[in-house]
Amino acid sequence: MSVEQPLWQALKAYRVLTVLYAVALFASAHEHFVRPRVAVGYLAVLAVWTLATVRKVSDARSCTRGFLAVDLGIAVTGILLTPLADSAARIHAGGPTLPSIWTAGAVLAYAVKGGWRWAAFASTLVAAANLVERGAPTRDTVHNVILVWVAAIAIGYVVEVARASERTLARALEIEAATRERERLARDIHDGVLQVLAMIRRRAADGATGGGADTAELVRLAGEQESALRALISRGLPGPRDAGPHDGPRGGGREPGREHPDGPVDLRALLARHATGPRIALAEPGTPVELPGPVAGELAAAVGAALDNVRAHAGEDARAWILLEDEPGQVIVTVRDDGPGIPEGRLQAAENEGRLGVAQSIRGRLRDLGGTAELFSVPGQGAEVELRVPKAVPEA
């Protein structure tokens, strides 16, 4: 709902109540009017107009310029007709005009529709009409004119500020949505293409791919593409969310072509896919640990990314342990290894180089799920990644 919508609703109620007030004022003092038929005729037109145009003050789109012009014209006409209907004594004594405080509603409509400049224009016309009706600028007349003028301009200014704030908020939400989409695509690229390219380069360096000019050229191209992709995703990768999830080597990311269902999924089954070798152990509860399918899939993908980091940095012979804990309000998954640990400052340096395994594939996933990812490491004593996800995951 627009931030100005409550103002339109309040204005709608104000117009209906004030036309009833104007009719009541006339009914209580009709015997003092010199031409009561003029007053009755005008108030009948005012009441019909107010009730017939209730929908016109429902929102900014319905409240057109033509409506505003006619509305203000009716208010000014009522002020100028007052000397013809009422007695001069009552007018000089400060008696109300025929539309009374209904006139302020016409001015406020200008303020809500067009801001403080429109409000200044409308209130100036009403002020001039009041001065003509009174014949002389009395203290009460000047006081009322200034009050309406200042209030209308203030409300118009507030409306302009509210609209600017609403546009800024909408832009911020668009930027946040685009940033989340870039991070998601960066995670998919990291868990799929980048991991494959990095694996090709590592195996070539270990002499596992064989010789030959074609192999050397393939390795060179793989290295170039890996560097280019890392630079691209570190700057931000725009584009629609049209790419499906990709699988990383040896369990990183999601399985190719498979989307996790929206219903409950036992997280133990997803984590078991990562503990297929003798060097990765899984400790889990004896009862199912159920999470919504997409949440469980993202959490399992973060665990896969953590294990990929173990293989890449601790070596193929490193051992890893996955601990799954099911607590009343959250699920905790811990991945620990017996590698050499992470040197201080290495994570920030890796992120600057475009290596976003921890920043995006792990922390980014957990942040999107409303959880946290903490990494603990002591040089020479391995590393530990603790992933926490609340069971009541907020919607994105």
TrEMBL record:
<feature type="compositionally biased region" description="Basic and acidic residues">
    <location>
        <begin position="243"/>
        <end position="264"/>
    </location>
</feature>
<feature type="transmembrane region" description="Helical">
    <location>
        <begin position="36"/>
        <end position="54"/>
    </location>
</feature>
<feature type="domain" description="Histidine kinase/HSP90-like ATPase">
    <location>
        <begin position="299"/>
        <end position="391"/>
    </location>
</feature>
<feature type="region of interest" description="Disordered">
    <location>
        <begin position="235"/>
        <end position="264"/>
    </location>
</feature>
<keyword id="KW-0472">Membrane</keyword>
<feature type="domain" description="DUF5931">
    <location>
        <begin position="1"/>
        <end position="170"/>
    </location>
</feature>
<protein>
    <submittedName>
        <fullName>DUF5931 domain-containing protein</fullName>
    </submittedName>
</protein>
<keyword id="KW-1133">Transmembrane helix</keyword>
<keyword id="KW-0418">Kinase</keyword>
<dbReference type="InterPro" id="IPR050482">
    <property type="entry name" value="Sensor_HK_TwoCompSys"/>
</dbReference>
<dbReference type="InterPro" id="IPR011712">
    <property type="entry name" value="Sig_transdc_His_kin_sub3_dim/P"/>
</dbReference>
<keyword id="KW-0902">Two-component regulatory system</keyword>
<keyword id="KW-0808">Transferase</keyword>
<dbReference type="Pfam" id="PF02518">
    <property type="entry name" value="HATPase_c"/>
</dbReference>
<feature type="domain" description="Signal transduction histidine kinase subgroup 3 dimerisation and phosphoacceptor">
    <location>
        <begin position="181"/>
        <end position="204"/>
    </location>
</feature>
<feature type="transmembrane region" description="Helical">
    <location>
        <begin position="118"/>
        <end position="136"/>
    </location>
</feature>
<feature type="transmembrane region" description="Helical">
    <location>
        <begin position="66"/>
        <end position="85"/>
    </location>
</feature>
<dbReference type="InterPro" id="IPR003594">
    <property type="entry name" value="HATPase_dom"/>
</dbReference>
<dbReference type="InterPro" id="IPR045975">
    <property type="entry name" value="DUF5931"/>
</dbReference>
<feature type="transmembrane region" description="Helical">
    <location>
        <begin position="142"/>
        <end position="162"/>
    </location>
</feature>
<feature type="transmembrane region" description="Helical">
    <location>
        <begin position="12"/>
        <end position="30"/>
    </location>
</feature>
<dbReference type="InterPro" id="IPR036890">
    <property type="entry name" value="HATPase_C_sf"/>
</dbReference>
<keyword id="KW-0812">Transmembrane</keyword>
<dbReference type="Pfam" id="PF07730">
    <property type="entry name" value="HisKA_3"/>
</dbReference>
<dbReference type="Pfam" id="PF19354">
    <property type="entry name" value="DUF5931"/>
</dbReference>
